[in-house]
Amino acid sequence: xxxxxxxxxxxxxxxxxxxxxxxxxxxxxxxxxxxxxxxxxxxxxxxxxxxxxxxxxxxxxxxxxxxxxxxxxxxxxxxxxxxxxxxxxxxxxxxxxxxxxxxxxxxxxxxxxxxxxxxxxxxxxxxxxxxxxxxxxxxxxxxxxxxxxxxxxxxxxxxxxxxxxxxxxxxxxxxxxxxxxxxxxxxxxxxxxxxxxxxxxxxxxxxxxxxxxxxxxxxxxxxxxxxxxxxxxxxxxxxxxxxxxxxxxxxxxxxxxxxxxxxxxxxxxxxxxxxxxxxxxxxxxxxxxxxxxxxxxxxxxxxxxxxxxxxxxxxxxxxxxxxxxxxxxxxxxxxxxxxxxxxxxxxxxxxxxxxxxxxxxxxxxxxxxxxxxxxxxxxxxxxxxxxxx
DNA sequence: AAATGGAACAACCGCCACACT
DNA sequence: TAGTGTGGCGGTTGTTCCATT
Length: 389
Description:
The protein is mainly alpha-helical.
């Protein structure tokens, strides 16, 4: 017996929502929470399917949604995260407070994609189109795809390794015999394959070249959302802590706003085994001045804010600690990137675009301190910190 | 003023993963 | 363990708005 489609009932309304419907849905959820979406329409007196209600709520009615024009900062973040994550809109949305994945997706398709294309950057690979056309186009494209895939694969392997590690640590908290494979070991192949250059544009018509060195965020497998490890302290786990400070406005950065927590009470029965960014224990009152979060990691190694380029990281954003969670892994990555220094977190400043006098591929891959630094800087820093704007 | 085409956005559809029985 | 229900995600489509001719 097959499963019946969500909206197969005759008589269910489709199409645009009316203000009355919105009101009904809003009122019901405010009073009862959404509970089971499937059951909601009947209870709320709506001739809609549950799925439609859920979409309407998550994409439009939720109070913690910011609508309207995307800021430059947001645009930049989207582009960079897209280069990193591909079309994982929900993951990208995690880093854009108050924006929905649908909105970001639409904005990408209608604005950013075209703009990148106009600038001669392939919106899929984030590489210059010339690059793809010259040499062997198909080969380059394949390499780019491979890059994305490799990043995914590396993230997936990392997540798996961590899960195994965590469960082992819990089960054998006192055992020292466990030797889960280090992420670096798991990732060697993927990391090597993923070592490719990605372009970061800015809207001043400078194309900023960067070389991705496959430093990775804490990505999960492609089928799940981008999350950060909010691991409980286990016996063997080293817990890195990053404390940043910022005067950034709430418009940028990964700041959790009031509404997000408020709505947790509305029947949200998600029991994700992982903790999303939104679940990080942000101290709301302290957001404006300081933020702290921890990331437990089961692999040895220490990291301070000065050991990576993210020395000017502010706020909460991509989990900087994780990038340097494993020195072995980091070393591997650094080696793969021709031992490029990461100490100068200048991000994607104009320096990186000054390649006019250069020649050949070396200039082509002109140091940008690396692509990830830019992402980190941009996502983590206030707009005023960004040389881009 | 009407027609047309493109842009922007809301909503739908199909698939998938996970939880539950 | 298989079957089923549910929610989430990404791709796509439909509709509306607006500028141009």
